[in-house]
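This part of the workshop introduces the protein records we will be handling. A record pairs a protein's sequence with a compact description of its fold. Comparing a sequence with its tokens is the quickest way to learn the format. The record below serves as our worked example for the rest of this section:
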Amino acid sequence: GGARLVERDLEVIARDLAIDYLESCPQNAIVISFGDNDTYPLWYAQEVEGIRRDLRVINSSLLGTDAYINQLRYKINESDPVDVIWSAEQIEGSKRDYTYYVQKPGIDPNQYVDLYTMMKDFVGSDDPSRMEQARDGSYINIFSSKKVSVPVDVNLVRSNGIVNADDSVLTEMRFEIPKNGLQKNDAAILNIIAANKWKRPICFTSQYGELGFGQYLRQDGLSYRLVPVQIKGINQDWAYDKMMNKFAFGNANVSGVYFDEENRRHLNSIRLAYANAASNLADNGKKEEAKKMLQKCDKGMLEENMPYGMVSRYQQHNIFSIQFLQACYKAGDTTLAEKVTKALKKDLEQQRIYYSSLSDDRQEQFAGERGDIAMATGLLSEIDRLEQYYKKPVPQPTEMPQAPINNNPNPAPAKK
């Protein structure tokens, strides 16, 4: 018979990407995902391989349909039902597919209103006095304020682990909705946050900022947790543990495993997560931990499978690698920094040579999506800037104090 393929010979980035997302999340979390490429792997990992069935994965796009929202009302695997505020009748068919922002008398647009109250009593109301009449005489659902707040039970979020022991916790989470209209899936996400009342962690597979609460998302690894702590950065101890002990790389550490453009994009997301986490650790005086994280990622993605320097749409691949490079410098790993620099410079110089060989018309076609001479040159300049900044000599004082000279070969013992 022919050669038998085993898992170690295969690219398994979809399954491992799901592991990295799921293992980043705390127990019993609600996980909101975006698009197909991060959702299908999560479903596969849970339903086929039984990984982290305590988590409730919710696809944001499908939240635009009544049938999918209604599924949240039931327990699935080990995950309890999710409160969505509105009844099945209130979201049936096209009801509340879109709600508009309309100022109402008696509601100060500069005052923050309770999110749960607004979503239940205004957006969820069929009272004409809390709706707006359209030109055809029908009534449409509205939301009455863009400035909203979510009260925080400080003792609860400390006891259930949503926040860390040393966090300075807010008594309410305030944010402003940056939209004049909410689609049904937008409103459903706000409903989930409001009705959850901090009983369960809520995580996102991206640093989601479209509804205004992005400043409250803290990186846990590959996922972002909603926390009532107005702080940017990384959940350092949590991320370090998960990324050092739980993360997988889709066999990118096995020589000869091929990754196409789409899968390289996902590997880049993992590489960027390591860069961000290591950079944050280094900034907070934890250079050794940062160095270990970067080396873990480097060993997990062989350069022959996942180069540091490579052409991509909008130069995203090289931009992420430059962020990884900066993290290497911050952590003091000059050996890894030189490896990344060499790969980046080689690719970007080749890009410049290639783009300059094209006709003017062809150069215009490439500009923007794939890059051009200016983009490649700009990235090379950034690499040089980082190199000069982090390799500059430590300034020395103009006059160094002279050490006292002691000519006595047998000095007297120091007095106690």
Notes: DSSP finds 13 helices and twelve strands in the chain. Residues 219 and 234 are 5 Å apart (CA to CA).
